[in-house]
Amino acid sequence: MTEMDDLTRAVEATLFAAEAPMTAEAISAHLGGADVRAALADLAAHYRQRGVALVERGNRWHFQTAPDLAHLLRREREDVRRLSRAATEVLAIVAYHEPVSRAEVEAIRGVQTAKGTLDVLLEAGWVRVAGRRESPGRPTIYATTPEFLAHFGLASRKDLPGIDELRAAGLLDPVEDALEAALAESGEEREAGEIGQSKSPLAEPPLASEEESA
Amino acid sequence: MTEMDDLTRAVEATLFAAEAPMTAEAISAHLGGADVRAALADLAAHYRQRGVALVERGNRWHFQTAPDLAHLLRREREDVRRLSRAATEVLAIVAYHEPVSRAEVEAIRGVQTAKGTLDVLLEAGWVRVAGRRESPGRPTIYATTPEFLAHFGLASRKDLPGIDELRAAGLLDPVEDALEAALAESGEEREAGEIGQSKSPLAEPPLASEEESA
Amino acid sequence: MSELDLTPAELEAAGEWDGVGSASSDDTALYLELDGWEGPLDLLLDLARRQKVDLRQISILALVDQYIGYIERAEAMRLELAADYLVMAAWLAYLKSALLLPREEQEDPSAEELALRLQLRLQRLGAMREAAARILARDRLGRDVFLRGAPEGLRVDRKNSWQCDWFALVQAYGQVKARTAPVVHMVRDRMVMTLDSALTRVSAMLGVTLDWIELQEFLPPREGGEWTDPRLRRSALASSFVAALELARLGKAELAQDSTFGPLHIRQLRT
Question: Residue A23 sits in which domain range?
Fold first, then answer.
């Protein structure tokens, strides 16, 4: 490395610390009137191939990150995240019932839907706002997008399995039924007192607030 | 000028663009996991005699103007925090004795420390709460931060002015320890029981309360 | 500035002291203003510095005299003295008298020990005060050295890539449907024996005989495949049991069970 003269060092430090681009005159005034042109030229040459460049724009000088490294300033990081259970349910309801309002989604789910849950689906690009329903309150209605079909490998919404198919696959069996079936199978000899297993309708409030967030 | 390798350029650009000092790990993470230690050493050497220097403060790296150019760059409006004498003393005691409890600070200063004094240092980001001491009362203990090192141009606490001499002279040890050592040295003929045990109420004057706030 | 062996005057020159207790003034010019000191120890340290010797060699006796003299002058000028200063004065007066006593008459802890302790404290405070001045005299960020004035800043934009598969979607819909279905499910009729019918049945059967009858006998006969529903059987057993308890409570029947979990027997009570 070559020795730098003091003026060049001073110009370098001044421009480095400056909060805005400076004209050669302003730098000179700051440094007691020295002629800084040679120093600026030296510095510009020195920084030409470094990670930082000294550039002149409209007579004002400033340091900036080398243009080819600009991508370092803004990096994108993609976090792969699994859709939460709640969001998956909302997505499924939108897909099966579209176009559907949030109130309708909630009625079908039986739980309130956090605002963030729909936002996640909008962000993922799987659900879009499909206008407003011409009914009191004119609620926003939602529908799925072509990206939704593409992501799930569906040619159209008709490809979603119907209710009968779901039932055949056992996906519609209520949890309680499955439990009782299991009990009846294993527990012929159980005591009578155990009958009380079947849930009363009051065991679950109709509209619980959503525990699981998106 | 010699050709720079891409990684060194990227490290240079990253640190130039960064708004706060960065650890080598953070730089590495930003640049996709590359080992940046060699690049940092190269850059530090390159900038050693320039108007701008690459420095390491508490494991964090940043560029700053060269100290000898201070007279050229000093601004009309200093943006350094003015500290009260009390705050300055507390800061020094925390730095040289860390981790240290408030009671220990007060024992050295001989006055109670106003709550605001420590708050000023916490707010400046120079002192942090470093947990609690596992002793009766579990007092909160304080230590300095990387920002403290950066602000005062210290690479690490080892850089604290005169810390080695102070330690060698025993001036960082508690008074009790020093007293015992001194008595053991001078008073071979004394009875062991006499040494530093059982403090009488008169053994030490009480703490004064701090009138001056930070 | 050299970082070692700063004199008090240089400490002042470091420029950050707000304190008024200037050590560079000489003894006669002592400010009679206690606000300048941060307590008695601070004043003592200042007085000690005036001895212009290493803190390890200060004369405690001289220091005590100076302090007490200072306090007396302040009192003579009718200045309000903070209690701390008076307490220290009293303590120092005690220390002085103890130091002047012959050694053997001294109490424990000895006056020398007390003096040494005071000296050690002054040394420590003095060391920290110098250290503070040295720290403040370093090249400070924003005063002597500067960070880049207009850093571009580094930004990491987080983008979420959401994952969900076909099966999870369909399964979720099935679960929603299943979860909201129980309203229908719960009203499904179930074969049960009510308590009323059990009461009637047990009462009627008890009227037939005076012998002990096992509770099991009261259950409806297994015929016509009706018993294939185990739930009806359990319901009948439970209802009959409650009916038996009710009859016993009413004094119409008595119950007996030979062993825990053994067969439960019931018979009519003669009235």
Answer: 6-72
